[in-house]
Amino acid sequence: MANTEEGKVVTADVTSGEMLYEAILEEGVFRFDCSVDDRNAAFPSLSFTNSKLRDTPIMIHKVPSYIPTFQCLLGQQIVKLEFPVGTSFYGTGEVTGQLERTGKRVFTWNSAAGDYRPETTSLYQSHPWVLSVLPNGEALGVLADTTRRCEIDLRSECRIQFTALASFPVITFGPFPSPTDVLISLSHAIGTIFMPPKWSLGYHQCRWSYMSDKRVKEIATTFREKGIPCDVIWMDIDYMDGFRCFTFDKERFSDPKSLVEDLHHNGFKAVWMLDPGIKHEEGYFVYDSGSKNDVWIQKADGTPFVGEVWPGPCVFPDFTQSKVCSWWANLVKDFISNGVDGLWNDMNEPTLFKVVTKTMPENNIHRGDDEIGGCQTHGHYHNVYGQLMARSTFEGMKLADKKKRPFVLTRAAFIGSQRYAATWTGDNFSNWEHLHMSISMVLQLGLSGQPFSGPDIGGFDGNATPKLFGRWMGLGAMFPFCRGHSEDKSLDHEPWSFGEEVCPALACEEVCRLALKRRYRLIPHLYTLFYMAHTKGTPVATPAFFAGRFLRF
Fold first, then answer.
1. What 3-state DSSP class applies to 527?
2. 55 in catalytic set
């Protein structure tokens, strides 16, 4: 056992104690590890923009205000951080339930959570991050920098507890004078949001699915005839030829360029879906190209893993390899030539059918590049798969046209994904509970570094009533990302589809028209908020407690 400066103790066999610390990045930011050996052996960071920022100490004489303790037990690392009585907790990313997370527990494990409820503990994204607001008004952020499944336990009063496979570093940001200052400091580590194209701040109309180019044109024309603001029409998975990515159905979407030209003429942009599951079929050009370039995730025996998704048996690109990212980006580049304005990455947790876990085996193999962690099991890379796919899609759009800002929407994400993509809150329900919950979910993502999010307005699953849809549109028109979307089994959910009145004076259609016109009047302000988010790391939508002295730019 050896004593070091500042009273810290380093030992090869320590299983509990105070964590060792060093200052990193900037004043007020500290990295904590269980031991020097653990510090040296830590995996590269996939949340930081550059892992070297996390791994390079800076010379500073201040010491952290709060030092976590750790315990290593049965291969798990348990980290605890105690705070004064009266501390409240926020953040934890994409989570259900109330805005304040005090008393809650969640697990970071990207999951196809299509039936989520307030008590659901894992959704589509992973943000091992907690924002603490102290009794004196100061704030401090805590990041468990691990890609593994992680328990975030806030059930004990005034304590944050992370539990994940050993070992991983913990990063603290602050205390700083306000939550805004914490989020600005966090952005210096994980980056800020891409600057979105202005059209993406308008209203988006989507459905699973508009089944033909004729139907898409009808929807666009009706928006213009009725004077309801809308900038974007979305194409869900049924535009494809048998659900094969990078293809178009030869009968229902026979001329995508002509469709997009027509949409552009009427002032619309077009966003198209791309999933990670590539049909296992010889003669399909994407499968043949991927097999030739050896891009697929492998089973433990070294053969390509095959799992069932929409097209049937599928293989999956291994986005942990730079050569695979380039391969995908070039496919995206070619796809953009059809007039594609934006891309939608779905099912990228990744989700599989016909298996209890809804995802691939954790012992599958990713042959990752050394700079992101090297060859590891899927259990190591699962939570970042969606982020890596979104990054590759984003880079492909930049390849296609360097003068245009890319727009990518992703369902699965990891903390830091805002650098490449916007997000939405997944398959919600058409009910009042999910309308109310959409507020806290959007705010929570903003408090976790992702400012560009919103729910499926009106609810994805089920049939909204005119009153519910009108109320949801009135609220959703103020969210950073504003899109109406519904499933194939639901009734039509376009703003004019509800004949009943919301109140004696206004029909649902008129409520939606007024709400969206209000949004469009505010777009210059909204655009400014996104510019601030892009340049400084501040949220676009904030809780009321950010008002006054907390609202600092």
1. helix
2. no
What span, in angstroms and rounded, lies between the C-alpha atoms of 452 and 82? Answer: 31
Angle between helices 466-476 and 508-536 (to 10 degrees): 30
Active-site residue, selected from the candidate residues 151, 346, 456, 494: 346
Contact between 229 and 517 under an 8 Å Cβ cutoff? The reply is yes
Cα separation, 286 vs 201, whole angstroms: 32
**Tokens at 199, concatenated:** 């059209």
Residue 13: phi, psi to the nearest 5?
Answer: -120, 20
Task: Give kind and range of the element (H or E) at residue 182.
Answer: helix 179-190
**Distance in angstroms (rounded) separating the CA atoms of residues 44 and 41:** 9
- Output the average pLDDT for the chain: 95
Contact 417, 49 (CB under 8 A): no
Tell me how far apart the 2 most distant CA atoms of the chain are, in Å.
78
Q: Which of 38, 151, 427, 494 is catalytic?
A: 427
> What pLDDT, in 10s, does the model give residues 10-37?
334 458 999 999 999 999 999 999 999 9
Selected catalytic residue, list 94, 151, 349, 494: 349
**Lookup result for tokens 């376009």:** 494
Give the whole-angstrom CA distance, residue 309 versus residue 347: 9
Dihedral sign, Cα of residue 161, residue 162, residue 168, residue 169? negative
User: How confident is the model over 535-546, as pLDDT tens digits?
Assistant: 999 999 999 988
Q: What is the pLDDT of residues 98-156, one digit of tens each?
A: 999 999 999 999 999 988 999 999 999 999 999 999 999 999 999 999 999 999 999 99
Distance CA 168, CA 541 (A): 31
